[in-house]
Amino acid sequence: MEKLYADPTGKNAHLDRYAASEALQSAETDAKSTRDRGLVITGNVSLTDQNVIKVDVSGQVPNATVSACLDISRWVTTNAKSREPVSLPENRLTAYKIISVIEKYPEGWRVTRDEPQGKAC
Fold first, then answer.
1. CB 3.0-4.6 Å disulfide test: which of 24, 75, 95, 104 passes with 71?
2. For residue 13, what are the contacts with CB-CB under 8 A and spacing of at least 6?
3. Within 13 Å, how many C-alpha atoms sit on residue 68's CB side?
4. pLDDT for the residue numbered 2
5. Predicted pLDDT of residue 10
6. Which letter does DSSP use for residue 85 in this model?
7. Measured at the alpha carbon of residue 73, what is the angle toward residues 65 and 47, in degrees to the nearest 5?
8. CA distance linking residue 39 with residue 48, whole number of Å
9. pTM of the predicted protein model
C-alpha cells in the first residue's frame, strides 16, 4: 500500500502480490482517485495488535479473518508536483481497527477484503 499511494504513476507497487479480489480493486481505485486529485501519500504504515479471529482450512479456499490496528499517522499527503504537504482534517482517524480476510491462492496468501471499523485503537 505504501508503494501504491506514493507512486504518481501507480505502476510500480505490484499490489497483486499481496492483495486480490475486493481488497485489490478497492485499493487501486482509491489510489487512482488520490492520484487524479494530484496527490501522493508517502511515509510508513504499521499494523499492531494483530489477532486471528477465525481460520478455515477445510473449504476449497483456505482463509483466515484477522483484526489489527492500522496506524497511518506517519503517512503524509502531498501535492504530487510540488511535494508540499496538504492540510487534512484534524479529527480524522489515524489509527483504527480493521478486519481483514486473507485467502490462500496458489501463489501464496492474499488479502481479499479489508473492513475498517471506524473505531480508534
1. 95
2. 1, 3, 4, 7, 31
3. 14
4. 92
5. 82
6. B
7. 25
8. 27
9. 0.89
End-to-end Cα separation, the chain, in angstroms: 20
Which DSSP helix (H) or strand (E) runs through 78?
strand 63-79
pLDDT tens by residue, 55-72: 999 999 999 999 999 999
Low-confidence ranges of the chain (pLDDT < 50): none
Rounded to whole angstroms, the Cα distance separating 44 from 72 reads 7
Per-residue cell: 66: 484477522
Locate all alpha helices (DSSP H) within the chain, ordered by sequence: 2-6, 21-36
C-alpha distances (whole Å) from 119 to each of 70, 96, 97, 98, 110 are 11, 5, 6, 9, 24
How are beta strands 63-79 and 39-56 bridged, if at all? antiparallel
Contacts of 28 (CB under 8 A, 6+ apart): 4, 10, 15
DSSP tag of 23: H
pLDDT at 62: 98
| Amino acid residing at 61 | V
Q: How far is CA 109 from CA 43, 46, 104, in A?
A: 25, 19, 4
